[in-house]
Amino acid sequence: QLELRLGRSISVDSHSQAMAWGTFMELYVFSLIGMEYEITSNETDVHPTIKSWSGSKDLIVKNKKVSDIKCYQPKNFAKYADALLKGDIEILKKDFAKEYWQLVSNAIINDTPNAEAVLFMPYESELEVIREMAANYDGIDQWKYRFIAEADKSALPYLPDGGYYKNLNIFEFEIPLEDKIILTERVKLAIKELEK
Predict the structure, then answer these.
(1) Contact 167, 122 (CB under 8 A)
(2) CA–CA separation, 103 vs 175, rounded Å?
(3) pLDDT over 90 at 128, yes or no
(4) Phi and psi angles of residue 73, each rounded to the nearest 5 degrees, phi first
(5) In what order do the strands lie in the sheet with 65-70?
(6) Could you report the per-residue pLDDT of 24-68, keeping only the tens digit for each?
(7) 169 within 8 A of 133, measured Cβ to Cβ
(8) For 33-184, where are the E strands, in sequence order?
(9) Closest by alpha carbon to 170, among 23, 40, 55, 58?
(10) Distance CA 143, CA 135 (A)
(11) Residue 77 pLDDT > 90, yes or no?
(12) Which of 42, 93, 119, 166 is the most buried (most CB within 10 A)?
């Protein structure tokens, strides 16, 4: 609500290496996924009829699915990967409610039947390419990613090649109608409370 009235994010440019890592890894994930996706991570979408309801997705396949990319540190990566590997939205809803409801919200806003949770952590063998990408990155925020190129590899999140987890984990699911109804009603109620 505040962001919509401000016309900008309420966050100022706070910086942490974990946040910078996640943002930079999104760029790498974009290079791994199929061409069917449209990259939309810098856009905020507004619900077509409920103007106070907005959200940001990372990817969309129009009329089919929205996707959100997570690039967590090792402990959270393992926990989220375990939930995604079970392929059960009830587990996702229970153990990762924030992630689940964010996907549901973005699917409703963008009128897609499906949502897709994407989780990524590079294999050790991918680190050199990623370090080179960071070293050669020339955006205005290049200072944020310098540590990726310069840090000892033990300071970076990565998976051993050939281990239990895959680097790219994707769980696509159809949004249950009842969850769309529940979230829509909750958002309407929250907007009413905020407007008091």
Answers:
(1) yes
(2) 9
(3) yes
(4) -70, 165
(5) 38-39, 59-61, 65-70, 114-120, 168-174
(6) 998 899 888 878 898 888 788 999 999 889 999 999 999 999 999
(7) no
(8) 38-39, 45-46, 54-55, 59-61, 65-70, 114-120, 168-174
(9) 58
(10) 10
(11) yes
(12) 119
Nearest one of 91, 107, 84 to 166, comparing CA atoms = 84
Tell me the pLDDT tens digit for each residue of 141-157.
889 999 999 999 999 99
State mean pLDDT over 97-111. 97
Rounded to an integer, what distance in angstroms lies between the CA atom of residue 16 and that of residue 4? 25
pTM of the model as a whole: 0.88
In whole angstroms, what separates CA 149 from the centre of its chain?
23
Amino acid at 23: T
What is the average per-residue pLDDT within 92-100? 97
Q: How far is CA 92 from CA 51, 69, 109, in A?
A: 28, 15, 20
Let me know how long the chain is.
Answer: 196
What is the Cα–Cα distance from 130 to 136, expressed in whole angstroms? 10
Run of H or E residues at 22: helix 17-32
CA distance 155 to 138: 23
* Tokens matching residue 157: 């999140």
Among the listed residues 56, 47, 55, 52, the one whose alpha carbon sits nearest the alpha carbon of residue 2 = 52
